[in-house]
Amino acid sequence: MSTKDRILSRIRRATAGAPDAPPAPRDYLRVHGSRTPAETADLLAANLTEYRAKVHRTDEDGIARLLAQLLQASRTVLVPPGLPGHWLASATATRVHDAAASTPHDLDRVDSVVTGCALAIAETGTLVLDGGPDQGRRRITLVPDHHVCVVRVPGQVVDSVPQALERLDPTRPLTWISGPSATSDIELDRVEGVHGPRTLDVVLLGAQ
């Protein structure tokens, strides 16, 4: 029996016969205010910028050119298996395909990673990845220093966290991203790139 099994067994014995917990109240606001899809996209952009992410807007005709510009300083770019091929058609960086055998040291040698997302939350400026084909494994967005995330607007944008939870599968590996990785010490000196990308570029696709 594993340690986990022993702990769960003790919990079951301790709670045997206890009454069921009352249902949690759900009387909170599902969304704060009424917005058009364009206003929701603008709010997402504003909150992402507040977190020091860099926000760009383009459409399908311009995404290859924009991504080439964002990757101009990158020698290598990590590509999830389901990323649309035409997105990187103009990029000159060498493409590195995600492999299960890739170690953190292998990923650390990659300059950038480009992914899609599951959805984005406007009120919190949060991107959510769930390991889908255009996103790849969680580790590929945590180790490289530069992450470019493409959000389809308006289809992948919701107003609030409650709306996001209704659309997400809790059994998938969810990664919630609010700006580039950062932390502060006791003197509030900000350090970026501690446990994730130092630079986060977000492309709002379809929002021109």
TrEMBL record:
Residues 96-205 form the LUD domain. InterPro entries: FTHF_cligase-like_sf, LUD_dom, NagB/RpiA_transferase-like. Gene3D superfamilies: NagB/RpiA/CoA transferase-like. Pfam families: LUD_dom. It comes from the Bacteria. Coiled coil: none annotated. This is LUD domain-containing protein. It comes from Streptomyces katrae.
